[in-house]
Design brief:
The complex is a heterodimer of chains A (381) and B (445). Chain A is built from 14 helices and no strands. Chain A is an all-alpha fold and 381 residues long. The two termini of chain A are 16 Å apart. Chain B is an alpha+beta fold and 445 residues long. Chain B is built from 16 helices and nine strands. The relative contact order of chain B is 0.14. Classes of the chains: A mainly alpha (381), B alpha+beta (445). Chains A and B meet through helix 1, helix 7, helix 8, helix 10 and helix 11 of A and helix 8, helix 9, helix 11, helix 13 and helix 16 of B.
Chain lengths: 381, 445
């Protein structure tokens, strides 16, 4: 949700102690990262367990498992010549016995508490069986394959968008913080409310303008159909299809990011050590890079991590509007087809994506946060 | 949080504009709920044929004509009982001959979208037989078709191949209004047209009524969708739903987050650790996919979704923000004083700590409202809106699924989007302004 990130939540007034233990920096970063990794793994496991509990509230996961066992057993017995001579009743009995033994072998007749841990293990490995209706491009209907196939387009789209957003917002925020109170500063503050609308919303307007009225950019999709045969052509076509989604994403997030980050910069640039540096007559660029940007970065990374989590979660609708063949649109399709295994698998993979995002940004945080480096209290996301 | 700061807020012109917009939206919401009762709105939105047969499909809003030189047609609806229709009755054998002449004046610059005749007949054994003919502005009469009218019968002129063939390949609603000599004419001839229905009945008590609907290209102040429904219903009724959902979700999440943060900050120790760990777990729970899962598996009722939103946001980021402030508040002298006279934890939390959050809470709360309004629309676009309620998101979903942007039916997407946008902007403009007034952290720099 678009929340006002109050600077009060940011660790204001950091103290830059002198570097005294640069030899153990790597070890400290590694230890900090290691601890964060273990904490995150535990967090994800608990998160996934909660997801499983929600998913199985009406016995949905059980139903999937039973249906799959029945299908497997039926197919195997129908294809086995040894059973061909049997009467229908006898064959039914064989099928029933087989299903029963499978059910107890998989522990489906055990109490829910025990079963829920089996499901958890399956979810962690994305071993969610077969989709009911959906299939990957190669024709496989394994949930894991469907999801892994949809992962790269999503990573590409959101990765590119996030990188562009991060550097653009950083550039503008830093620039505006140096021109506090100027026309452009006031303008950017005035535009902040535009961030109340999510990316897909701007997507609709951009599609209307660029695809529908001016007809200069495609309505959606990832590449032209049929895809261009040459690699260069493919990349160009991909870039053309990415313009609108990246624009929509940036448009919806950039003003709030600029506003928030600019405020962080302003807070940090009124610190005593900055005044001191100015008094010493250090060049402006040095002050900006070493005394303002550096200590503000951890706070900005925290704010960016929250933003990325918010936008990851919005992927289903964002990709649906742009017809982008990624994870999000797969979830939309799965909802339309009531494809339960895919819906659960998608929820799991999104948990993973969120956790990996948190972890990566934590790692960057550890690299840039002086408190981690010199062994003070650990920062947190 | 006093009179002075409230006065200060209204120095921002954007805040005045935002407040006016919110007042108008609340007015629309109240008007919608009063003028169209809940049950009626839901039945109308279900879209049965009987409610909407007089509307054209995918017609734009009537105000399009205000900005156009060539006026697009609106729907003309003529019932055989109305005063302008002449009815002649003659006896003939066992039965009668009934002749209706239905006159219209056509002065639009575009062809109608479609034309249909809705007949109702009563008879003993043999249904009446009718002949249709068309009289143009020049007085020339063209025979169209003959057929039998059993009980209720709908005749769509554009789907009659015989007429299309007679008009040289053009459907009735184009061919009948165009210049017969010019096969490529793009504009209809203005003037008075008449449709003559000659009915032969086979018993004296047999009778019939007819309704002639000439579907326009424009209908209603909001236009219509692919099911002929008037979008105005959903635009009107979407307002109270969007406002109520946004408000309830924002109140629910802000209040619960605030209370959890207060407990976390006040008790500290293992309570704090536990609550903070839960916040971290909550961070990796994919909010929208879980909502989608709940919507798909259990219920799409707006109340279920609302409860799920609040439950999933209990340990949201607000908890961390509020806790950080409360940790400072906890150290204040007046809390010390309260503790020293023996105030209970509950009293300190609710009477002394939480009130200090109000300046931080109110702006955050107002900024949260539009994000939940958009969340409701997002769910509707994913097909997980409440199945019965007409909402803005549902209109966008219908428009998306019918390819409105490809087809050029822009009004269909733009009307709900613009409403969403101005609602979002109105609330967030006020929220950000309040934040600047209540938390003047940058003043004096």
């Amino acid at each position: 949700m678009a929340e006002i990130t109050s600077p009060l939540s940011a660790p204001a007034g950091q103290e830059l102690k002198s570097k005294k233990a640069s030899d153990s920096t790597l070890a400290r970063v590694a230890r900090y990262t290691g601890i964060r990794l273990i904490t995150l793994v535990i967090t994800v496991v608990i998160g996934l367990y909660l997801t499983i509990l929600i998913a199985n509230m009406g016995g949905y996961v059980d139903t999937i498992r039973r249906a799959q066992i029945r299908e497997d057993v039926n197919a195997r017995i129908a294809g086995n010549p040894a059973y061909r001579g049997l009467s229908i009743e006898a064959r039914q009995k064989v099928v029933q016995d087989e299903i029963q033994s499978k059910v107890s072998a998989l522990g489906l007749d055990r109490p829910f508490i025990v079963r829920s841990f089996n499901f958890l293990a399956d979810a962690i490995t994305l071993n969610l069986g077969r989709a009911f209706h959906m299939a990957s491009n190669s024709g496989a209907n394994q949930v894991r394959l469907i999801i892994l196939e949809r992962l790269p387009p999503t990573l590409l789209l959101f990765g590119v968008s996030d990188i562009i957003l991060f550097f653009a917002a950083l550039f503008f925020a830093l620039g505006l913080s140096r021109r506090y109170g100027s026309f452009f500063d006031k303008l950017s503050v005035g535009l902040t409310p535009l961030s109340s609308a999510p990316g897909w919303f701007y997507g609709i307007f951009l599609i209307l303008l660029f695809a529908s009225i001016w007809k200069v950019l495609p309505f959606g999709g990832m590449v032209d159909s049929p895809p261009p045969p040459s690699t260069v052509g493919y990349i160009l076509s991909l870039a053309k299809h990415m313009i609108l989604p990246v624009m929509a994403y940036t448009l919806s997030q950039i003003f709030l990011s600029i506003f928030t980050w600019r405020t962080f910069f302003l807070i940090y640039s009124s610190e005593d050590y900055v005044e001191m540096a100015k008094a010493k007559g250090l060049p402006d660029n040095d002050i900006q890079n070493k005394y303002i940007l550096r200590p503000t970065l951890p706070t900005i990374i925290t704010s960016f991590a929250l933003l990325m989590i918010y936008t990851w979660v919005g992927a289903p609708i964002f990709e649906t509007i742009f017809n982008w063949p990624g994870l999000g649109r797969a979830l939309y399709q799965a909802v339309g087809l009531f494809d339960t295994p895919v819906i659960i698998g998608e929820t799991v993979i999104f948990s993973y994506l969120l956790a990996i995002t948190v972890f990566l940004l934590d790692f960057v945080y550890a690299l840039v946060d002086p408190r981690v480096k010199i062994g003070g209290e650990g920062g947190k996301v | 949080m006093n009179l002075k700061s409230i006065k200060e807020i209204f120095r921002y012109p954007t805040v005045i504009a935002g407040s006016i917009i919110i007042a108008i939206l609340i007015g629309i919401a109240v008007y919608a709920v009063i003028s169209i009762p809940y049950d009626k709105a839901i039945t109308l939105w279900r879209g049965s044929e009987a409610d909407w047969y007089k509307n054209p499909k995918n017609a734009g809003p009537v105000w399009y004509n205000w900005f156009r030189k060539d006026k697009l047609p609106e729907t003309i609806d003529l019932i055989s009982d109305s005063e302008t229709v002449t009815r002649e009755v003659k006896d003939a054998g066992d039965g009668r001959v009934i002749i209706f002449t239905m006159p219209i004046t056509y002065d639009y610059d575009g062809f109608p979208d479609d034309m249909a005749l809705y007949f109702k007949s009563t008879y003993e054994e043999k249904p009446p037989f009718i002949g249709l003919s068309w009289i143009g502005p020049d007085g020339e009469e063209t025979r169209l078709n003959n057929f039998e009218i059993k009980n209720r019968f709908t005749y769509r002129l554009d789907q009659d191949r015989k007429i299309t063939r007679k008009l040289g390949g053009r459907v009735a609603s184009v061919g009948l209004f165009a210049n017969p000599k010019d096969k490529d004419s793009k504009t209809p001839i203005h003037g008075d047209y008449k449709l003559k229905i000659e009915a032969v009945t086979f018993d004296k008590s047999s009778d019939l009524t007819a309704e002639w609907v000439i579907y326009g290209k424009l209908a209603g102040w909001a236009g219509t969708d692919h099911l002929r429904r008037d979008l105005g219903i959903a635009l009107l009724w979407g307002t109270p739903i969007a406002l109520a959902f946004g408000l309830l979700a924002a109140v629910g999440t802000s209040l619960t987050q605030m209370i959890i943060a207060a407990f976390s900050a006040w008790f500290g120790g293992w309570v704090d650790t536990l609550l903070q760990r839960i916040t971290e777990i909550n961070l990796v729970l994919p909010f929208l996919p879980i909502l989608i899962m709940i919507g798909t598996f259990y219920s799409r009722s707006i109340f279920v979704i609302l409860s799920a939103v609040i439950l999933l946001s209990l340990f949201g980021q607000g908890v961390k923000t509020f806790r950080a402030v409360l940790l400072q508040v906890k150290e204040s002298a007046y809390i010390e004083a309260a503790r020293s006279y023996g105030a209970s934890s509950g009293r300190i939390i609710f009477s002394y700590m939480i009130p200090r959050l109000i300046p931080l809470l109110i702006p955050q709360f107002i900024v949260l409202i539009p994000s939940y309004v958009f969340l409701e629309a997002s769910l509707a676009i994913l097909g997980l809106g409440d199945p019965t309620l007409p909402t803005w998101g549902k209109i966008i979903q219908d428009a998306e699924s019918q390819g409105a942007l490809y087809q050029g039916w822009y009004y269909w997407v733009l009307e709900p989007s613009v409403l969403l946008m101005i609602t979002g902007l109105a609330f967030s403009v006020i929220g950000y302004a309040l934040d600047r007034v209540f938390n003047p952290r940058l003043r004096g720099q």
